[in-house]
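As a warm-up, study this chain.
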Amino acid sequence: MSKLYIVPTPIGNLEDITLRAISVLKEVDLILAEDTRTSGKLLKHLNVQTHMQSHHMHNEHKMVEGICQKILSGTSVALISDAGTPAISDPGFLLTRSCIEKGIEVDCLPGATAFVPAIVNSGLPNDKFVFEGFLPVKKGRQTRLKFLAEETRTMVFYESPHKLLKTLNDFSTYFEEERQASVSREITKLHEETVRGTLKELIQHFEETAPRGEFVLVVAGNKERRF
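Now compare it with the structure written out below.
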């Protein structure tokens, strides 16, 4: 029986893809891509000519059953996202869960994901951490921030440039402005940068320097709550 391959793709530098990932993308019958235009550029660079089909957050609910049936009938399928590891703040969870429920083997390859280099490069404790991804935009945001104010582990968040300052200000309000943090942007790309300091210092920095690119925020846990 064929299986589902979860294949991480580069988050910036096109060289950050494994030889095994390239082989899988060339050998499967079908590649599910979040955006076929974006992935098409990568596949062309890798000389991968496998047929692609769009699979994104707006159609994944409708597609899951059909994809599972294709795999059960003998079609080998690879799932990729625009950048990084599928299902990490990207589509992939629903299909993976459905495959597992139907007895379809799922093979997740190791590879690029933004939060790992960001937390290592932050200089904050990484023996234990919690990955939060994107915070709720409106409903549930305050509730989540109040809950995380008590978190003792290092916390990792994703954020877009136009919401960065709002999120940093929210952190300063709920976590206190002297909490240590790190902000990494454009990881593996030409303008990669990591800024470290207190939340107050980071807010000042990005008030003076317009945020550009995609961001990973790493925030120290609440030391006063540690035992």
